[in-house]
Amino acid sequence: MQEYELRPVEVVAAGMETMSALLQTAFPKAGHFTTEVLHWQYAGNPDGMVVGFNAWQGEQLAGHYVTIPMRAVVNGREEQGLLSLNTATHPAHQGKGLFTKLAKATYARAADEGFAFVAGVANANSTHGFINKLEFDLVSPLRAMIGAGPLPRPKPDAEVQFAHLWDAASVAWRLRHPAYAYSVHQGKDRAVVLSARKQFGARYILGIREPGLVDAGTPRTRSLPCRKVWIGLDPALAWGGRAFVNIPMRFRPAPLNLIFRDLTGKGRKLDPARVRWDAMDFDIL
Fold this sequence. Notes:
By secondary structure, the protein is an alpha+beta fold. The chain has helices at 13-26, 35-43, 98-112, 124-133, 168-174; strands at residues 5-8, 51-57, 60-74, 77-89, 117-122, 137-141, 143-148, 162-164, 182-186, 191-199, 202-209, 227-233, 244-246, 257-262, 275-278.
């Protein structure tokens, strides 16, 4: 049988169509793996171009794995890291260990290029592989707070070890997702970005950001919905005394496990009590 050839992902039109076709074959119920979405993710990100590998067997794309650059504040310093994103193996090539080979090639290249870490959110199927085969740490399952009424006010003195660093350009890019629609409620001291999607009749909150970061072209909503869902971790948000509960795992479509791998060789780990991460930080809504 012909061996697999691993090649770096290239952002070209024909490649986008081939990668989109593989993702749609591997995940037929996911409607967002279009060439338009891939171009937005892989080429449009203002923090940098995609880093990843494809596995080819002759002319057939057998496996695909990508990460995209993200900036973060880690232990008080700004660093360039990667967000683990799309992975797919063609059904005819499963069980060959392609995901592990692609991921290891990606992380080796990323370390050579100076990236300091890889972070991501893993589902129930992939968490084991990331932790046991790819040297990731399980930071924590994300909270999924559902309820009614006002959101907690952020505590200004919260100690944060890790936080995705957003600016106006990266927020504008994030809110241009070709498959999802967003709106923003602009307050005096914060902007609450809402997804059009709902769960149990409650609107998802994509993120809470500084008001000056959200582009004026984002549709505005005059008031926040009563019922809301917030996903993430944030030491600045105290949910006690609020009419919100953490959705039990049995009612979630996925556990939403935050994972982290240090690429500096220092063996750094994240304290979940000091991590700031929400739905804007990964591609779920």
